[in-house]
Write a structure and sequence with these properties.
The chain is an alpha/beta fold and about 350 residues long. The protein has 4 helices and 40 strands. The relative contact order is 0.05.
Length: about 350
């Protein structure tokens, strides 16, 4: 258990300390669960009322969140401060475990310095594994694949042949990188497989969640840029080109040959059809079906995707439909029309 004074934590966070810097904290907890030895944070205004009642030894807050009698660490982005605090308490230094005798490393493969290769990991001929790489149990690194320095592949990650993965990449359990894209041609009533001869290239500082699939290109490359973060259960089809720092949230999918600009966000359970362009900084809301290009910096939502403002107005209108129907019926009755549009007979 690490013990850090609030004065030291303020230095780590580059935050302004208001209160007793001698207080020692040993971990991070939510406001309503924190004890006197815990650090907490307030980034969502929804929990502001908990500031008064929390027992936390110190609280990371934004400017203006002054609370009498509390020890505060004030910074512009408390949530970023929370991330730094978690690193301070729970970050671990890398300690190489070596190569397990139960791992299989082909004689023609290259392994960098200080590896951690666990039992039942496989590295095939021609593969190059960088320095301080961790391959957990069941990891498969295919022929001529390249794994960059300080990369971590969790259990049962599959990296197919010739895939290139950058440095400081984290890929979680069950993800497959470089499997064949979904390419078939019609042959009468049958489907003829199109050989997927390309590769996948992943940049530096990328994190990919569990049970994702990143398909190799038909020809050329499927590319994931530096700094991208993918949630669990993401599908990236062949020849997709993804820029830098893109976020894909759970169960979203990108069909073949589409392009995502830098800093784009695709929210949960959304789909992007093939051969489209999602502009830089564009945001696709949850459960959206994108069927045409999205300009840079715009926000879209709905099925099919439309401008976010238009979608919100449509949703608001839907909520009023029932009352509108009742009013129309009442008006029809007043003017003597039936629901089918025929005039009611009058005596």
């Amino acid at each position: 258990m690490k013990e850090i004074t609030l004065k030291e934590m303020a230095r780590i966070l580059n935050a302004e300390l208001v209160g007793d810097g001698r207080v020692v904290v040993t971990g991070v907890r939510p406001l309503d669960e924190a004890m006197s030895t815990d650090l907490s944070f307030l980034s969502n205004p929804r929990y502001r009322s908990s500031l008064e009642t929390t027992r936390a030894g110190g609280i990371i807050v934004s400017p203006g969140s002054i609370t009498e009698g509390k020890n505060l660490l004030i910074m512009d982005d408390p949530y970023f401060g929370f991330a730094l605090a978690m690193e301070a308490f729970f970050g671990e230094d890398y300690i190489p475990s070596g190569i397990s005798t139960q791992a299989f490393i082909h004689a023609g493969a290259g392994i960098g310095s200080d590896p951690s290769i666990h039992p039942f990991a496989v590295v095939e001929k021609g593969a190059v594994v960088g320095d301080r790489v961790t391959l957990m149990s069941g990891v498969f690194v295919g022929r001529d694949a390249v794994i960059g320095d300080d990369t971590v592949l969790h259990p049962h990650v599959v990296v197919e042949k010739e895939v290139v993965i950058g440095s400081r990449v984290i890929i979680h359990a069950g993800t497959v990188v470089g499997s064949d894209g979904f390419g078939f041609a019609r042959e009468g009533k049958r489907h003829r497989k199109i050989i997927q001869s390309g590769i996948v290239r992943i940049g530096d500082d990328v994190e990919i969640g569990a049970n994702c699939a990143v398909d190799r290109a038909v020809m050329g490359e499927t590319v994931i840029g530096n700094g991208c973060i993918f949630d669990n259960l993401i599908q990236i089809a062949h020849n997709v080109m993804i820029g830098e720092n893109v976020i894909l949230v759970g169960q979203s999918g990108i069909a073949g040959s589409s392009t995502l600009g830098d800093n784009a966000i695709i929210a949960a359970q959304s789909g992007v059809a093939g051969h489209l362009k999602i502009g830089e900084g564009a945001i696709v809301a949850s459960k959206t079906a994108v069927l045409k290009d999205v300009p840079p910096g715009t926000r879209v939502a709905g099925i099919p995707a439309v401008d976010m403002g238009k979608w919100r107005r449509s949703v608001a209108m839907i909520k009023k439909l029932d009352s509108m129907r009742k009013r129309i019926r009442a008006l029809e009755k007043m003017v003597g029309h039936t629901a089918g549009g025929e005039a009611e007979e009058t005596e």
